[in-house]
Structures are given as structure tokens and as C-alpha cells.
Design goal:
Length: about 325
């Protein structure tokens, strides 16, 4: 649905986007994750034909972003970073205006607007001025604007920035809902957001792709090891040694003495789930008592930091 080949964009001496390539299949929700200045907005602006790349090509819904930009715009709904809303219009007049700009026939206009009001939950604010609305409702109006021509592809630049936690949940839900039948790229700094809404993640850093994949795949790219905490009581001096002999365990460390003679150990492994089971088995075999066993996996946040800082220091 979207195919990007070696896109590059520089501003003066800043290389905002450096030779990036990726594909987005139909129906995918791709998360663009990266720190400030990574090049997310610049990439989105090229894909929506607001910026012309210095080099490289991209097609969106089969249309070239430079040669065929009018056609691209028909297939795409774009929610820019700061949605340019007309604040002195009421919600319905604004949506009518957008529908006109999008060339929606007047016979279809009322129906489309009604559908947008419904989809984006705008019933309670239809008569209000856009400028009076809370940030969350402004964002909903922005989404309605993005969707009014029923595009197959949505490009949403930080759709939940500045919203309160309950609005964030609502807007994410809305994006998930409208993303079911569409192809979506969204950018965010908020890591749980990609886990909540995206089927695939592209981590972008200093204009380049640092990693791409499902959250699970990124976990292995980052060389993520699980931490397994276990508290064991035993008369056995050889507990640490026996733990380290479990296959897949790369490190064993005593991390504390608990009450009642339990000792807590931290095990490292790439295969934490299986190692957890093996620890249980070892306990049964050796007659140890366990009163704690839990596993911590690397969060996407850890992976993100690891990948973006590794890139920087490389
Ligand atoms: N119009 C412009 N003129 C000059 N430099 C620009 C322009 N637009 C972007 N840049 C620079 O390009 C780089 C990438 O910016 P971009 O806005 O794409 O980042 P971003 O990933 O969207 O960041 P953020 O998370 O802060 O929105 C930055 O160094 C930025 O200063
Ligand atoms: Mg941006």
C-alpha cells in the first residue's frame, strides 16, 4: 500500500531523513517511533506530498508522491502535528468546508458529515465553535477532517499529544476502530501507544531506521534478556551453581537475603519462560522451597532507549 525507497530530505546542513526505505501493507497499523527531531514528521510530510524529497521515491496507493501528488492526496487522510483547524467556525461548518475542499458532491455532504460526527464522537459539540473545544475534542475534529473523504490510508502525526489519559485511551480506541479497514501510519513518542495500537513498529533515529518489526521481534533485535527473580530456601550450598547449570541461563547473582532463610537470586536468560519452568523443576529435584518466582522482560521503552542510544554512540 505504501512503498518507500531511499527517501532523503535535508534542510540546509541538517539531514532530516537519511536514505530510508520501508513498506506498509494493506491493513497494517505502523507505528513511527522516535525521539524529537528523528525525522518522523518530515517523512510523513513527504508521503503526504507537502514536501518534495531530495532523492528517493515513494508510492502511496500505487501513486508516485512527486509525479502523481494529486492522486496520492485523494487516497490519504493526513492529521498533521498541529492540526490546522479553523477556530472561528462551528464544527459542522468546518466539516462542510473540508468536504468542499475535498470535492465531495453536495448530495453526499450531509451524510458524510453525519457519519463523521458519529464515528468521531462529536455529537455533543456539533454547534460549538472549534476554538472553544477542549484539546481532545479538537483532536476528534481533526480526525473527522482526516477521514471525511473516506481515505484508504491514514497518516497521523502524534494523534494523542497533549491529551489527558482518558482522552488518550478514547482516541487510541477510535484509531484502532477506524484502522480496522484502513492502512495507518502514526507517529508517537508514547511507547505504550505503539504497543496498544500498532501491528508493527519502525524505530527511527537521526533520520534513519534503527529497527523495525513487531514489538516481539524488536525484543530479540535488541538482544533483550529476561530477568528472572527467584527466592529459594535450601540447606544446599550449591544453589547458585545448580541454577547456573540450567541451560539458557547466562548469569546468576545473589541479590538479597530475605526473612525465614530465603535467598533471592537474579537469573538472566533470553528464554525466560522456559528457564522459569526449569527452576521449578530443579527446586523439586533438590528439595528447595520457592516463595517467589517472577520474570521481567524488556519493555519496548528499554528497547527503544537501547536502540536509539546505540545508534548515537556508533
Ligand atoms: N522546515 C524545516 N526547516 C529546517 N529544518 C527542519 C524543518 N523541518 C524539520 N527540520 C529539521 O529536521 C529534523 C527532523 O525533524 P522532524 O520534524 O521530522 O522530526 P520529528 O521526528 O517529527 O520530531 P518531533 O518528535 O519533535 O516531532 C530536525 O532536526 C528538524 O529541526
Ligand atoms: Mg514531529
Amino acid at each position: 500500500m505504501i512503498s518507500v525507497k531511499s527517501l532523503t530530505k535535508t534542510f540546509g546542513r541538517t539531514v532530516a531523513v537519511n536514505n530510508i526505505s520501508f513498506e506498509v501493507s494493506k491493513g497494517e497499523v505502523l507505528g513511527f517511533l522516535g525521539p524529537n527531531g528523528a525525522g518522523k514528521t518530515t517523512t510523513m510530510r513527504m508521503l503526504t506530498c507537502y514536501l518534495i524529497p531530495d532523492s528517493g521515491t515513494a508510492t502511496v496507493a500505487g501513486c508516485d508522491i512527486v509525479e502523481d501528488s494529486l492522486e496520492v492526496r485523494k487516497h490519504v487522510g493526513y492529521l498533521p502535528e498541529n492540526a490546522p483547524l479553523y477556530l472561528d467556525m462551528d464544527v459542522v461548518s468546518y466539516l462542510e468546508f473540508v468536504a468542499d475542499v475535498r470535492g465531495i458532491p453536495s448530495s453526499e455532504k450531509a451524510g458524510r458529515i453525519r457519519r463523521m460526527v458519529e464515528t468521531c464522537g462529536l455529537e455533543s459539540v456539533v454547534g460549538r465553535y472549534v476554538g472553544e473545544l477542549s484539546k481532545g475534542f479538537k483532536q476528534r475534529v481533526g480526525l473527522a477532517q482526516t477521514l471525511i473523504h473516506d481515505p484508504e490510508i491514514l497518516i497521523l502525526d502524534e494523534p494523542t499529544t497533549g491529551l489527558d489519559p482518558s482522552q488518550i485511551i478514547e482516541i487510541r480506541q477510535l484509531i484502532k476502530e477506524i484502522g480496522k479497514e484502513r492502512t495507518v501510519i502514526l507517529s508517537t513518542h508514547i511507547l505504550p501507544e505503539v504497543e496498544a495500537t500498532c501491528s508493527r513498529v519502525l524505530i527511527i533515529n537521526e533520520g534513519e531506521i534503527a529497527a523495525s518489526g513487531t514489538p516481539e521481534e524488536l525484543h530479540s533485535v535488541a538482544g533483550g534478556e529476561d530477568s528472572i527473580y527467584v527466592a529459594i530456601k535450601a540447606d544446599d550450598e550449591g544453589v547458585p551453581e545448580k541454577l547456573s547449570r540450567i541451560s539458557g541461563v547466562t548469569a546468576v547473582k545473589k541479590v538479597g537475603d530475605l526473612d525465614d532463610g530465603y535467598i533471592r537470586f537474579l537469573l538472566k536468560s533470553k528464554d525466560g519462560a522456559r528457564v522459569g519452568e526449569e527452576v521449578f523443576r530443579a527446586a523439586v529435584e533438590n528439595g528447595w522451597t520457592i516463595n517467589e518466582l517472577h520474570r521481567e522482560t524488556l519493555s519496548l521503552e528499554d528497547i527503544f532507549l537501547k536502540l536509539t542510544t546505540k545508534e548515537k554512540s556508533a
